[in-house]
Amino acid sequence: MGTVVMYGSVSVDGFVADEHDQPGPLFDWLSGGDVPLDDSGAVKVSQTSYDYTRPYWDRIGATIVGRHVFDLTDGWDGKPPGGVDHVVVVTHRPAPAGWDPEAPFHFVDGVEAAVAKARELAGDRVVEVAAGDVGGQVLAAGLVDEVRMDVVPVVFGAGKRYFGPVRAQHLLADPDVVIRAGRVLHLSYRVLTPTGRS
Fold first, then answer.
1. How far apart are CA 48 and CA 154, in angstroms?
2. In sequence order, which residues have a C-beta less than 8 Å from that of residue 37 and are 6 or more positions away?
3. All residues at 6 or more sequence positions from 23 whose CB lies less than 8 Å from its CB, including other chains
4. What is the pLDDT of residue 194?
5. Each residue's pLDDT tens digit, 15-29
6. Structural domains in the chain (count)
7. Average pLDDT, the chain
8. Residue 187 forms beta bridges with which residues?
9. Is the pTM of this model over 0.85?
10. Phi and psi for 172 in degrees, rounded to 5?
């Protein structure tokens, strides 16, 4: 089974969007470089960010998002972002009316079912879980293996929290990745078991 990774760009004070669901400068690092990160050429990062991010993107087999993010992005017009093969949407509602049933999007009820479906689709590749409410629920359920953050030098003060509804303490290992790049700090942590052992 592939690793389950909670991932997102985040403000220094821990938010993935402001109070109006806007990312502000959180994605500026994705347009602040001169190295194309994907075939579209629309996303350009520093060489340092490319060397860290591209190999990770290439390992993703499925991404899990909440219905809120799906609706905000209009379902990425039926094309998974970043070249991901499948998107699993956690929702209590059916797919939108007129949604193409051939699009590689899967609508499931509950985070446990979403992780099971994403693991099935991803095989031995990474299952990525979008940070925020759904990511926090997956972490709280004990289903996250690793937390990856792209920390952007901005303070929001309020907004949508990286760890969403998490209220209990969760121990992470010391960071195994700390990379400084243009307008971003890339961090990665393994999630420790409740006993404090990995």
1. 20
2. 30, 43, 44, 45, 49, 50, 53, 54, 57
3. 9, 16, 17
4. 54
5. 999 999 999 999 999
6. 1
7. 94
8. 149, 178
9. yes
10. -115, 150
Q: Residue 31: helix, strand or coil by DSSP?
A: coil
| Residue type (1 letter), 185 | L
Query: How many Cβ atoms from other residues are within 10 Å of residue 142's Cβ?
Result: 10
Residue bearing tokens 């972002």: 81
Asked if residue 105 is part of any domain, the answer here is: yes
Contact 181, 48 (CB under 8 A): yes
CA dist., res. 143 & res. 134, Å (int): 12
Tokens 């079912």 found at: 113
Model pLDDT for residues 121-157, shown as the tens digit of each residue: 999 999 999 999 999 999 999 999 999 999 999 999 9
Find the domain containing 106 and state its range: 4-190
Q: CATH code at 146?
A: 3.40.430.10
**Residue ranges of E strands in 18-155:** 35-36, 44-45, 60-66, 86-90, 105-108, 126-130, 146-152
- The answer to whether position 168 is within a domain reads yes
Does 32 reside within a domain? yes
